[in-house]
Amino acid sequence: MEETIDRILRKYPAGKKDSLIPLLQEIQRESGHLSDSSIAEVSRYMNIPLNKIYGVASFYDQFRFGKQGRYHVQICHGTTCHIYRSSAFQAEIEKILQVKAGQTTKDGKFSLEVVNCLGACGNAPVMLLNGIAHGNLTTGRLQKILSRIKEPNE
Amino acid sequence: MNNEIDIHTEEKSFLLEKVLKNLTGEFLKEDLEQISLLKRDKVITPVIYIGTGSCGLVAGASQTLEAIRKYLSDNRIQARIVECGCIGFCSEEPIVDIHLPGKARISFRKVTEDKVEDILSAIFNRNVNDDHVLGQYKSGPAETWANVPFIDQLPFFALQQKVILKNSGYVSPLSIDDAIARGGYKSFYKTILNYTPEKVCDIVELSELRGRGGGGFSTGKKWKVALTTAGDQKYLICNAEESDPGAFMDRAIIEGDPHRLLEGIAIASYAIGASYAYIYIRSDYPRALNILEEAIRQAKDYEILGQNIFGSGYNLNISIRQSAGAFVCGEETALIRSLEGKRGTPWAKPPYPAESGLLNQPTVVNNVETLANIPGILEYGPLWFKAIGTKTSKGTKLFSITGNVQNSGCIEVPMGTKLSDIIHHIGGGVKGGKKLKAVQIGGPSGVCVPAANLEVEIGYESLQEVGAVIGSGGLSVLDETVCMVDLSRYFMEFLQKESCGKCIPCREGTKRMLEILEGITKRPREESTHETLERFKGVVQLESLAEVLRDTSLCGLGQNSASPLLSSLKWFREEFEEHIFDRRCEAAVCRDMRTFYIDVDACNGCNVCQKKCPENAIIGVVKVPHFIVENKCNGCGICFEVCKFNAIIVK
pTM (2 decimals)? Predict the structure, then answer.
């Protein structure tokens, strides 16, 4: 883990504060989230106080401080998806997977995130499962998709 | 393999030397022949186009693509597959086009993986699958298909005028060759060789192009300020942080024709004397991001970007910065802060970024659509551009039309088009024969236009007649099943979450307004406590609070945060009053306002609803119709969902 952080850090010049966000983005991309230890590393390397880094990271929706589930569900809550009652679908997901928006289940299997707009309004309501989009959701389709990940045929 | 590389090197030098650098517009006959092959106007082997923009992918284009590949290899058919951007018709995706030698290009709609075999085997036998045909393209001497409409005559396309999206659907966004064959980078070459930066600013100012991000400021004037302000290093920033829910025009441009945007950025950078340009793009657009990265790599490879471009001594480096997700970063000063690695909070203008922006240097922030207009203006001249549109609003405008509408997608219409034409002709009217209620323009910072006012023309000033703004260009069509109070609450919730917290009116005001709106849409446990009084008081305060926010907030987010609410209050006041006084939601959207009844004739007393009711609000015995106790019911609607006999009625 630490090696990964070191490798990423070395790609960025130490003093340049404007590369903080791309740096954090790359760490999150590689390790799934921003851990306390990785932020401490960044703080030492970039010579930026810890609280400033938390200040920046917590400002943006993208950064996560906890781990993401193995199955990461993102439900779109843009205007069109809202009109097509995406909040009801969100409630359904929360009920089936036993997870609240912005959280990960204890076993680390599922996590749920509400996103602003995926720009695929022609197929509203839309959700992403591990980055793969599913459009034109109906309760039936949603249940089918979720039952596949709930009890995978392993 | 070597042979392939040789062919490509040959093509590349042909495109660079004979197409891009040919400013006369006169070509030798054999060159024209080769260009038409490169443009795929004429094909020798069959070409299959598939729209793999984000909207296509959501509809299942990647599975369709696999099925097409499998079909071709199973049947040993030699054909070229071109993955292109979207033609704008999102609701008909996945769209697959087939261009057979000697025949016109024909387009099919809703080609999901299971339909591929039927459609392809029919078309290779010169038959057309009528269920899925969308239309055919006009293509010179090629033979047309009988009884197939022309695509530009379909209602969805007939009123559109494609200028920015001209190449979208024709070119592969991953191929710079396609772009150059269709005239890409020609304007940049002409500009850099023939015009001084001052001259470019003059041309753009003369064209009367105005910023498409919502502000509507003259682009040429903005550039001139940056050009004439002294600075060690100037910057151009392309704002692709398109986070208005319901807007995806920028995504369509990038995924359809990324080189048009890069050319626009290159010309703009040259015009303000910037050697560094940034594209600030949303992280929720992974496909657009990959396409842009590849487009920049190819442009560098062709030496269109980099050092000493076309031997002129001008250097330009374009880099991509991924936004970390904050709606407020669509505001230019907040965007600059974010690029500097800070919290994305705006600053009070002046100083304007054109005077002191990124790292305190002169910086121009332009929207994707604004920049995508630039190559056309330089190619055909400012007068050509000025001829499109209305007196004060020139050119075309992109809209993403979504919501309860028949045809949804991304459209391009000349300024001055009537809103009703967009909704009823291009959009095909409301889905499912329902009644149109309103059109929401511009997302959370925009307003609603009621169905009665749709005769208004699109333009910066003309829309103000009905109190609307052009905003970024999201159009949401709302039918009678939409509750305006709920929609206002939705937008307020969005803005409250996205408020950056720097200025107090916005931080506290959005929170208070959301509380008031939630008070209106929630059912109180009792009507006698102070909560009821608070609710009525809140409503009285709602309007004045909205006005304070508009007048005192620091940036556009706060200033416009009350617009959707104020316009809904203006046009749909009775709906608000109904929620407040009668505790009723006509559209049955607000959960706590709903009342459920059991139809005694339909209920057979199966007892399922009683078991599922979380509030024990349903009474009754098996095989006898049940009854819902109204003041126990919390309106969750679970009984409605579980009833198999449609015995539950919602009011």
Answer: 0.93
